[in-house]
């Protein structure tokens, strides 16, 4: 008869801390200009609540909304878009802080993901931060939706925050 072996030796918990490698861009420059794509008012609220505790004074937030366009190129939309305006207002109402700078950029493009990748260069963003539209479906985020494409193709680091809405 075989017996099971159970290791009852107490383990000491270990904490591993990693310091950034010398010469890497893990410093204040990384968080200078953060591109924050938002899809609509509810997404604006979730994203504002997610990023709020992580923002340093003096950070510039480039809050971006993409509207459907006909051209294959990404352009900055001029004029007032009511939906984008309501989306920006919700974000600002939740996140308002005197020590942050805000830029509002409405883009027009055929593909949301391509527009967001283009927006990184157009706005000189140093980082992208967003909450996925459906936190329960990470496969979709990594493999096929605009967030996944943004993660794969952006020329700057991308931070994905969990959507804490219940």
From TrEMBL:
- One Pfam family named in its UniProt record: Usp
Top-rank lineage group of the source organism:
Archaea
Residues crossing the lipid bilayer are none
Tell me the organism. Halorubrum xinjiangense
The name on file for this protein is Universal stress protein family protein
Instruction: Give the classification, highest ranks.
Output: Archaea, Methanobacteriati, Methanobacteriota, Stenosarchaea group, Halobacteria
All residue ranges annotated as the UspA domain in the record: 31-162
């Amino acid at each position: 008869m075989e017996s099971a072996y159970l290791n009852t030796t107490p383990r000491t918990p270990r904490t591993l801390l990693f310091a950034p490698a010398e010469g890497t861009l893990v410093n204040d420059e990384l968080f200078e200009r953060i591109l924050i794509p938002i899809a609509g008012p509810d997404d604006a609220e979730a994203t504002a609540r997610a990023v709020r505790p992580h923002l340093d004074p003096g950070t510039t937030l480039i809050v971006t909304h993409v509207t459907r366009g006909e051209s294959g190129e990404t352009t900055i939309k001029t004029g007032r878009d009511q939906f984008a305006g309501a989306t920006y207002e919700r974000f600002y109402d939740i996140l308002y802080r005197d020590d942050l700078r805000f830029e509002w950029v409405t883009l027009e493009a055929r593909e949301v993901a391509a527009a967001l990748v283009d927006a990184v260069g157009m706005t000189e963003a140093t980082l992208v931060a967003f909450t996925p539209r459906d936190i329960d479906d990470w496969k979709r985020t990594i493999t096929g939706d605009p967030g996944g494409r943004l993660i794969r193709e952006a020329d700057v680091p991308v931070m994905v925050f969990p959507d804490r809405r219940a």
